[in-house]
Amino acid sequence: MTIKMASILTPFIDKRRRLALIVDDAPIERPYSTKTKLLAKIYDHDQHKYSTGYRGVMAIPSYQSPWP
Q: Which branch of life, at top level (predicted)?
């Protein structure tokens, strides 16, 4: 997936810039939901607790400028 995204974004980036792909997963809590599809018990490493919800995954392109 990462290679495909990089190959799609590369033609739009100036050759002097570097492409970095930041991938992050974030917990999306749904404490009062019970009959929602794909609902799971997830562990939040920041707060060190379990909760009910989803794990959202985000991929964000970042471009490093060649100039300081």
A: Bacteria
**Residues 36-41: contacts with CB under 8 Å, at least 24 apart:** none
Q: How far apart are CA 50 and CA 41, in angstroms?
A: 7
Task: Give the residue extent of every domain in the chain.
Answer: 2-64
Residues 7-66 pLDDT 10s: 777 776 767 777 777 788 888 888 888 788 888 888 888 889 998 888 888 887 776 655
Burial of 18 from C-beta contacts in 10 A (0-12 / 13-18 / 19+): exposed
